[in-house]
Amino acid sequence: MHEATIVVDLHSSLALMSEALQKAEEHATAGQLALELMHEIRNPLEAVGNLTYLAQEEAENPEAVRAYLRHAEEQLATLNSIASRTLGFARASDSPQQVRLATLAEAALRIHQRTMQSKQIHLVKDLPDDLVAEVYTTEILQVLSNLIVNSIDALPREGTLYLRLKKRRSEIHFVVADNGHGIPEEHRNRVFEPFFTTKNSAGTGLGLALSKRIVEHNRGKISLRSSIRPGRTGTTFKISLPT
Ligand SMILES: Nc1ncnc2c1ncn2[C@@H]1O[C@H](COP(=O)(O)OP(=O)(O)O)[C@@H](O)[C@H]1O
Ligand SMILES: [Mg+2]
Hints:
alpha+beta, five-stranded mixed sheet, two-stranded antiparallel ribbon, globular, 7 helices, 2 domains, binds magnesium ion, binds adenosine-5'-diphosphate, 55% helix, Heat Shock Protein 90
């Protein structure tokens, strides 16, 4: 075979291979998302099943039935917000939009309102109204939601969640912080790895890996600081976005 032909052949098989790799990666992401989704809906679904069963068992006792239904309603609201979040993410590949970041933060908080209430989490917000960035809206919503869930998980009852937004030169900083149990030093480098979790079967270890990917897709950076010093434990995630 002529050398030039070999080079052309090599080029086209390289192109084919990188296309296949890209496809594989997209499938992996979809698979990871599906996994995370299944994981998230399993508990509330099971709870709804149990609660309707219990309600039937106690059909003679309207007080009890009402209480079970109220719980079932809460679980359904959770399922609902998971569904809208996931749909939002699936549709996220359109173009970036100029958006008021405070609006995104409020939307992310709404998704977790009930969990925060049930854990009596204090919320400290500093979200100036006039900060705007060009981002893939549903993607950044997903990231904020992931960070908020992690903070809620790390917080004790009546712990504090901080959500701050500020402008620093040509960047906007989004800060999600908590005074929860903190991340030990030996884990700090690993938390962005896919499947790294300290939550056993309750975690997928995908939240931060996906979040990092998304932030980079939005031309931003994500970093963390954490302390496990007794009396002053807590974790701060900072997302920097270009304006
Ligand atoms: N705010 C936080 N406080 C303490 N630990 C955290 C916090 N956020 C993340 N982590 C640690 O990072 C790990 C990975 O987080 P993540 O990728 O969201 O996966 P998952 O939440 O499913 O475990 C968590 O299991 C936890 O150990
Ligand atoms: Mg998580």
